[in-house]
Amino acid sequence: MFDIFFTYFFPSLLIAGTLLLGYKEVRNHLHLKAQDRIPPWANKRLTRRVVGLAIMLVIGIMIFVGVSFLQSSKLSVYYWLVCLFLVVCVLVLALWDAICEIRIIKEYVDDFHNTELQNLKNKFKIYHN
Fold it and tell me: Which candidate, 46, 26, 60, places its Cα nearest to that of 97?
């Protein structure tokens, strides 16, 4: 049972999830592009996420191939080290993407806060003049 999970179910789930997330990201980007509402950070975001999804797709295929066909040997150690390296790369890329998204949200909140403060100052001037 455990062998079947790692041989077929987990890699299939990883590959299917990766393809669905990639479809969602590209569809969202094309939707914004069709409406001419692409923010300046959208292209970099799409690039980061598509690269991460491509690496995840490779990891899913490597897990399937490694568990299904790779025999225990010295070569398999290097194979799994490469797979582990790709996992670390995806984690670093995900953290980088999260930090970039937090910066974007912070800029948006700061801009919104500044405009609201300016609106309140203008209203206060109108009422007291």
Answer: 46
Amino acid at 36: D
- Residue closest to 33 by CA, chosen among 20, 43, 23: 43
Whether the Cβ atoms of residue 14 and residue 63 lie closer than 8 Å to each other: yes
CA distances from 61 to 40, 46, 50, 88, 117 (A): 34, 22, 16, 16, 52
Residues contacting residue 50 through CB under 8 Å, at least 6 positions apart: 22, 25, 26
Residue 34 sits at φ, ψ, to 5 deg, of -65, -30
Residues with pLDDT less than 70, the chain: 1-3, 5-6, 127-129
Q: Tokens 């969202």 map to which residue? A: 28
Contact 64, 7 (CB under 8 A): yes
CA distance 128 to 31: 46
Q: What's the predicted TM-score (pTM) here?
A: 0.77
